[in-house]
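Lab notebook page, bench 4
Experiment: in silico fold of construct C2
Operator: M.H.
Input chain length: 199 residues
Purpose: comparison with the prior construct
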Amino acid sequence: GAMSRKRMKLLVDSLTRSSKHFNKSEVECLVNLFDTLVAKASSHFAGAGFDRTVFRDTLHSAFGLTDEVMLDRVFSTFDRSNTGSITVVEWVEGLGVLLRGTLEEKMKYCFAIYDLNGDGYISREEMFQMLKNSLLIQPADEEPDEGVKDLVEIALKKMASTYFDYDHDGKLSFTDFEKAVREESLLLEAFGPCLPDIK
């Protein structure tokens, strides 16, 4: 009724003010879509948000993201409050970066996706896990893991300015990642697709 319309207006106004990337009518559309998704989700979040399954289905159908591991990582970066469900604020802010983010925002987002254990570095192991997941391994490949290991070494040589720094032990810091991406923008999604395709 009137109350929910009033609440909707307040919500849209507030999100439009806080969003750097969407105008008012876009925010309205995103909030409506959010409500639709919440209705599809399991009810135990009581209208506060929607769960991982609905999120994955939505990103899969809207943006063609198919990799299970990547979709889980995208969910985690959206779910900043770490509750296991996406709130309307997390939804609008997350999509802002995903769809309209500046290069700076996208670099931070991709780095967070690839830093599986959240320690501030992308390690050899993390690169290996992600590349192994995102590459289509042909059944004829004798030693697919060896090929992935070679790719990891190539990526490290290309991206780690501190490659010969003994302390780094083959890890990429955000500074390394940022420097590499600024020099070669194709490296933004070097370890697997986690942004929507251009369409």
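Observations: The mean pLDDT is 86. Residues 2-18 form the longest helix (17 residues).
Next step: discuss at group meeting.
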